[in-house]
């Protein structure tokens, strides 16, 4: 948005608990150089036992920070504020206040928050359709074949200009829906209750957002025009085609183009 943004974030402390100290330190020092002792450790220098114990203690502090929403927001907001102040040749606070957060403790709460965020540009009359709304997750999902390349270039630029010290971890996509190929592969053979993924099919979410965006909201300026075709029809896809694309898009995208044939 023009003066704020919304995020739907999943916190997963159990994942950071499984990282080794080396993994924690490498991730933290992508953004911050860390104390000299940590730099010496990562450079492979020989340390005394008491120094190694100190490094382990520092890694535990960083482990907690890497699973902290507050630290995530700090690391996200601070560079934005610095860049904005530099562009405006000013100093002082850029953000009006500390961020606000709301726990999403049910599938209904999660989906309603996602739809609210994805429809925000339309409600503010900054875009007419979800596929035209810049900087939204739904647009990234609709153009997923372009997303990873764009993100890779952005990360390379951040390393080159010093915004990142290094970057070695794999680029993680947006959380998959329950029918996505990556989610099916990751959870093959697991019980249904252990399945990681958003609680509906991707095409169902698109249609949910499309229909919700047509509803008039008394405290919002914009909506999706009721006369527009359904979102999958606007994209030129049937539900069956979209299911095939979203579960195996690498098989269907070639040189930036979508190639689909009608099934028998």
Q: Any idea how many domains?
A: 2
Unreliably modeled segments? 184-194, 247-258, 260-264
Roughly how many Å apart are the termini?
Answer: 44 Å
Class based on secondary structure composition and strand pairing: mainly alpha
Proportion in helices: 40-55%
One letter per element, helices H and strands E, the order comes to HHHHHHHHHHHHHEE
What does the largest sheet look like? 2 strands, antiparallel
| Spatial extent as radius of gyration | 22 Å
The side-by-side strand order for the widest beta sheet comes to: 1-2
Question: How would the global form be characterised?
Answer: elongated
Strand portion: under 5%
Overview in brief:
Helix content is 50%, strand content 2%.
Please write out the topology:
Elements: H1 13-17, H2 21-28, H3 36-42, H4 49-66, H5 69-88, H6 107-123, H7 137-142, H8 144-160, H9 181-186, H10 202-212, H11 231-234, H12 239-247, H13 249-252, E1 253-254, E2 257-258
Helix pairs in contact: 2-4, 6-10
